[in-house]
Structure to design on (702 residues):
């Protein structure tokens, strides 16, 4: 009998078929007899999820309507159905499976691929079929053929399916119950919006909200440092005293103690130079590639995953949904054998430092389902490279350059630490001199990269002229997240996210979501209008604020709780946990929400009313057209005569201060507001001012 190979989607099936002689049929591909498949084989495909969970009303008619009295939605068993518009392809798969005794799961080698395969297979009703698993990291013909020759049993695959199914059902339960609970309770408060709740997406929104609250609550404070500008025989340099005083007086007292005036003689007491090395960066996982691409080109995480999936299907890179930064000796062997050819692709020749594997990159113990993202054995022609879209080429080269760096020398530099004394008070200076660019020559220098100041040639006991100043600076608020930082934020639950370069910290933490799902979660919260992204900066929306005000204090706002759930889900995938235990925990969590949320929302206070197109609360007569009324809509205040040409509008937030309907009323009726506290300037300073309306535009009066 011909085995049936089930791929996840048509493009994947086509890539498999290219490794054999084959003929395209309607909904499947027929493989001709081959040493691997002596009788031939059939390749068919899903179209993503062909099978999905049924809607609540399929279990009980009372769950068809949104009602607090009907909650909780907790079915005893879970039922699945064929997704709308996909019945024809499902029918083809079912017919082929019933004609064979062997079915090969050739969906993506991850939890989701396992879920797609088994949800389709079980829904066909097939029984007693031999199931095998194709486990590959590349779609190159020789890797595909090798994979089909070395098919695995389905033991690990079944565990991954149990994990993915538990995740799917838990997300469905939290979404169905949480979304109805919060939407209905907020509706009672006059907020007519649907608030989608998610097991992972909601705590993710809350982390962004917390960062924005930190920024808004931040009050800049001055601090004082003593800085010296020194003139030596061969040039100028600067140094600082080890002091960061909150009061200027403290710095003044230190200078007085040493009898130091504005201009003094000094002496270089120590010049210590140390050679330092920076090894090549680790290979890319999906999250490190998403972070790098966002820093360099402002690509969203979802775009990076989409482009990388395309490059994978073009057989240029290995499987992209990976969370490891290591490879095995097998991958290292083919990379080392082709280094010179890879160099030619990007015209970057350099002497190979070593072709011996290093534990920093090659460690089988740290490779589980997939290895790091690396170029495949395929060496693309110049024509193929030229045919890539700009974003494809950028990402392919990023992977290629990071892989080549593994064979390059360390970056070497000399770090010089200078101590300059002025009347017994030491000033410290650090300078850096590049000795050997090494692997860094493969990468363009980032515009944001901080350069250490270069120092003139100095010698110990050299006299210098000095000019001493007290320098006043202001503390700066935390920075808002960029879209690329959201991935690291989710992975670390908000901790240490600023240090995106130091991926070592990410290894111990499970975080929110998985490598494969995080970019999709970010897209979901954007689609639900909880966050907005402008010039790569992430902001919470008014709708997002109301959601976060509502969930504050319960487990939905707890990233650590969600991270613990993710940890347990991974235990299911390893055979160390039970899906039944996990779903029972989710059921208890939902009941706890139903019991506690109504009172909790009262305690949290009534959130400001969210303006929607249906909720047109009239604030005042429009000061421009004198016909329409100014009403509150999502994100701004506008005139009801907008469609007839009146362009009067007011922002909901001005200089990081949310404007109330009362303040807008003052502007419309009196032309100015009372003093408003808490505006934030571009340099992070808070200030108070009145707003004035002049020619339809906002101005400030101090």
């Amino acid at each position: 009998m011909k085995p049936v190979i089930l791929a996840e989607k048509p493009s994947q099936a086509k890539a498999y078929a290219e490794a054999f002689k084959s003929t395209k049929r309607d909904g499947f591909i027929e493989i001709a007899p081959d040493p691997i498949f002596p009788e031939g084989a059939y390749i068919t495909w899903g179209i993503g999820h062909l099978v999905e969970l049924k809607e609540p009303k399929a279990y009980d008619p009372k769950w068809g309507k949104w009602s607090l009295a009907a909650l909780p939605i907790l079915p005893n068993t879970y039922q699945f159905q064929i997704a709308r518009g996909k019945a024809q392809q499902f029918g083809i798969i079912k017919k082929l499976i019933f004609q064979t005794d062997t079915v090969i799961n050739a969906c993506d080698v991850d939890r989701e691929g396992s879920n797609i395969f088994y949800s389709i297979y079980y829904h066909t009703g097939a029984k007693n079929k031999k199931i095998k698993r194709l486990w590959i990291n590349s779609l190159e013909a020789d890797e595909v053929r090798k994979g089909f020759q070395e098919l695995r049993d389905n033991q690990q695959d079944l565990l991954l399916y149990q994990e993915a199914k538990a995740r799917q059902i838990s997300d469905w339960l939290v979404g169905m119950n949480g979304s109805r609970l919060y939407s209905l309770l907020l509706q009672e408060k006059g907020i007519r919006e649907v608030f989608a709740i998610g097991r992972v997406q909601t705590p993710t929104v809350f982390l962004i909200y917390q960062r924005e609250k930190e920024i808004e609550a931040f009050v800049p404070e001055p601090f004082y440092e003593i800085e010296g500008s020194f003139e030596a025989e061969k040039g100028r340099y600067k140094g600082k005293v080890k002091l960061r005083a909150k009061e200027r007086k403290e710095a003044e007292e230190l200078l007085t103690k040493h009898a130091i005036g504005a201009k003094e003689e000094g002496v270089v007491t120590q010049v210590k130079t140390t050679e330092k090395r920076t090894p090549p960066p680790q290979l890319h996982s999906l999250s490190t590639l998403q972070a790098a691409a966002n820093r360099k080109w402002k690509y969203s995480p979802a775009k990076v995953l989409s482009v990388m999936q395309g490059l994978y299907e073009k057989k240029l890179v290995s499987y992209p949904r990976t969370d490891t930064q290591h490879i095995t000796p097998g991958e290292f062997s083919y990379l080392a054998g082709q280094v010179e050819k890879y160099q030619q692709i990007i015209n970057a020749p350099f002497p190979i430092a070593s072709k011996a594997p290093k534990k920093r990159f090659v460690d089988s113990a740290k490779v589980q389902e997939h290895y790091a993202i690396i170029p495949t054995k395929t060496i693309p022609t110049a024509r193929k490279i030229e045919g890539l879209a700009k974003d494809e080429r950028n990402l392919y080269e990023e992977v290629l350059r990071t892989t080549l760096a593994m064979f390059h020398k360390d970056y070497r530099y000399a770090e010089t630490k200078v101590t300059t004394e002025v009347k017994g008070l030491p000033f410290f200076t650090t300078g850096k001199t590049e000795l050997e660019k090494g692997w860094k020559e493969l990468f363009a220098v980032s515009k944001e990269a901080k350069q250490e100041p270069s120092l003139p040639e100095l010698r110990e006991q050299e006299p210098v002229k000095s000019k001493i100043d007290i320098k006043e600076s202001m503390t700066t608020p935390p920075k808002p997240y960029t879209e690329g930082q959201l991935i690291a934020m989710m992975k670390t639950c908000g901790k240490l996210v600023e240090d995106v370069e130091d991926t070592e910290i990410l290894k111990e933490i499970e975080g929110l979501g998985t490598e494969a799902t995080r970019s999709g979660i970010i897209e979901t919260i954007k689609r639900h209008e909880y966050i907005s992204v402008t010039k790569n900066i992430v902001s919470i929306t008014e709708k997002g604020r109301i959601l976060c005000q509502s969930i504050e204090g319960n487990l939905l706002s707890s990233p650590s709780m969600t991270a613990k759930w993710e940890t347990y889900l991974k235990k299911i995938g390893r055979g160390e946990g039970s899906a039944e235990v996990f779903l029972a925990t989710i059921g208890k969590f939902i009941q706890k929400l139903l019991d506690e949320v109504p009172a909790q929302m009262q305690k949290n206070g009534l959130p400001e009313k969210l303006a929607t197109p249906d909720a047109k609360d009239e604030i005042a007569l429009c000061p421009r057209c004198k016909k329409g009324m100014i009403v509150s809509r999502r994100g701004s205040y506008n005139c009801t005569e907008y469609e007839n040409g009146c362009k009067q509008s007011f922002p909901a937030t001005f200089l990081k201060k949310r404007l109330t309907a009362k303040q807008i009323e003052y502007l419309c009726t009196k032309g100015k507001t009372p003093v408003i506290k808490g505006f934030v300037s571009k340099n992070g300073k808070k200030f108070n001012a009145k707003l004035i309306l002049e020619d339809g535009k906002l101005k400030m009066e101090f």
Notes: Residues 496-509, 611-615 have pLDDT under 50 and may be disordered. The chain has five domains: 4-152, 169-216+479-604, 222-279+411-474, 286-406, 618-701. The radius of gyration is 31 Å. The chain is about 35% helix and 20% strand.
